Description:
By secondary structure, this protein is an alpha/beta fold. Helices cover about 25% and strands about 25% of the residues.
Amino acid sequence: MTSHTLDTEAAWDLILQAEDRAGVTLALPGSDEPALEVSGNGEWHLLQPAKEEALALLEMFLPLCQPRAAGAAQHVIGQLGQSLDGRIATATGHSRFINGEDGIVHLHRIRALSDAVVVGAGTAATDNPRLTVRCARGSNPVRVIIDRNRRVPDSHHLFTDGEAPTLRLVAGDYTPGNAHYDGQNTVTEIPCLGSGSEPADPELILKVLADFDLRKIFIEGGGLTVSKFLQAGLLDRLHVMVAPMIIGSGRPAFSLPEIDFLDDALRPASRFVNLGSDMLFDLDFSVALPAN
Ligand SMILES: NC(=O)c1ccc[n+]([C@@H]2O[C@H](COP(=O)([O-])OP(=O)(O)OC[C@H]3O[C@@H](n4cnc5c(N)ncnc54)[C@H](OP(=O)(O)O)[C@@H]3O)[C@@H](O)[C@H]2O)c1
C-alpha cells in the first residue's frame, strides 16, 4: 500500500492507539504500513506525510498519551471555554454553547485521553452534564464531582445514567481504603473535602484520585475549580478555547488573588491552534520560561 497524507481522523486513530504505549510502531487500521513511531521517552516520529491540522493534533495530544506508571506524578490538564471578554457563562449560568462544534470535539478528545474528568458542584448542578465521550472516538473517563455539600441533585445524569464510573467527593475526613470503588458504572461517595468553609486543598483531591489509580486528570470546569488548581500550581497544561463572542457580563473564567504588578502575572509557554470555530491557547506550565 502507498503512503497517503494523514488527515485529522487518521491522526486521531494513531493517537488513540498510542495511549499508554511507548516503544511501538503504529499503523492505520487495514494497513501494514508504519505510520507513527512512539519512543520510550515520549518522542515520536511520523512516518507518513500529514495535513497541517493532523500534525497540530498529533503535537497537541501525543504528549498526553505517555504511560504514567503507578507512583509517578499525575498529569493534570485544565480547560476553559470562554468568550473574548473572559466569561464562561452568563450571570445566570448559561454556557451552552460558548464554543463552536470544533471546540466541543476538542473537549471530548481531552476527555477520551483522560483517566478522570473533574468538575465543581457549580457546573454539575447548573449544566446537568454527562461528561462522557460522544463527539469523538474513545472511552469515557471516570467522572469526579467536587460536591462537599451534596448540592448537585441526585436526579442529575451523572448519578443516574450509569454511563461511566462516578466519584462524588463530599465533606468529611479522608481515610485511604475506606471508599470501595469497583470500576463499574456506579456512584461512589468519598468523604475527603473536610468540613470547614474554606476550599479543600486541590493537592488532596489529586492524592485521592491517585489512590484510585487515576493518573491523567482533566479539570473541565468551571472557573472556580480550574482557578483553584491553577493557583495551587497543579496544572501541567491549560487549554483555553476562546470563542469570537462578547457576553459583556457573567461568570469569569479565572478567579485568582489580586496582583499589583504585571511581573507577577502568569505567562506560561503557549501555542495557538486555530480549531476552526474557536482559537485554542495551549498553555504549558511544565516548561520554565527564561527570565526577561
Ligand atoms: N465554558 C466552559 O468551559 C465551562 C466549563 C464548565 C462550567 N461552565 C459554567 O461555569 C459555571 C459554573 O462555574 P463556577 O466557576 O461558578 O463553579 P464550579 O467551578 O463549577 O464549581 C465551584 C464549586 O465546586 C466546589 N468546589 C470546587 N473546588 C473545590 C475545592 N477545592 N474544595 C471544595 N469545594 C470545591 C464548591 O462547591 P460548594 O460551593 O458547594 O462548596 C464550589 O463553589 C456554570 O454556569 C457552567 O455552565 C463553563
